[in-house]
Structures are given as structure tokens and as C-alpha cells.
């Protein structure tokens, strides 16, 4: 059913919790796993965040890859720059993914937050099913 799974990571607690679900799906369906990290460029006049430095992103991807490797899974990693929801959907389309699994930060508790959340935008723009792990 799911031959390929895209797992966008951002280092959040929700992302770490979603990793358990991702591992289960990948093992169950013997799917190919791709981990994606999206670096959002700072707004004009804003200083770059230390969380978005090339070193921080490389460490995040390496850590995520190691978590799955310890469970005997092969993992591909992708790092891209741009608006997260758009990049997630673009990568899912380019890589012909069957499923996107992502954590939910709960920022969509208001109408304004729901419309602008990465999760909500990804659900609305995705070329494949999206599983949101609360």
C-alpha cells in the first residue's frame, strides 16, 4: 500500500513522537523512507536562526537517520530551502511519495493559526495522503 514515505523533521517534540509511527509504517509496509528538513530563509531584515544553520540542519538529519538506522532501516535524506509546506509537497511530488507523515504542533487551535499552519497547508496542497500525528 505505502511503498514510499516522506517524513519532514524539524527537531520538535511532535516530530520526534511521529518518528515512532513512521518506523511502524515503514516496517509494516517495507517502505522506502525519506527524511526531509526544510530551511526557511529569514524574513527580510531578520537575523538567521541558529536552528536553521547548515550545521544544525546536518545534525538534525544525521540524528534522525541514526534513529531509523538503529532499527535496521535504510533512510534517504533531503535538505531544501523554502516555505516548509510548499517544499514538503514539492518533494512528495518529485519523489512520487505514497504518504507524508508529520507531527502536529497544535498551532491550528485558532482560525488564523489553522489557515497558516504548515500541517494544514501540507494537507491542502499534498499530492498524496498526509498522516498527522498529534
Automatic annotation (TrEMBL):
UspA domain span: 1-134
Name the InterPro entries on file: Rossmann-like_a/b/a_fold, Universal_stress_UspA, UspA
PANTHER family (alphabetical): STRESS RESPONSE PROTEIN NHAX (PTHR46268), UNIVERSAL STRESS PROTEIN UP12 (PTHR46268:SF6)
Q: Which family does it belong to?
A: Belongs to the universal stress protein A family.
This chain belongs to the protein called: Universal stress protein
> What lineage, starting at the top, does this entry show?
Bacteria, Bacillati, Cyanobacteriota, Cyanophyceae, Oscillatoriophycideae
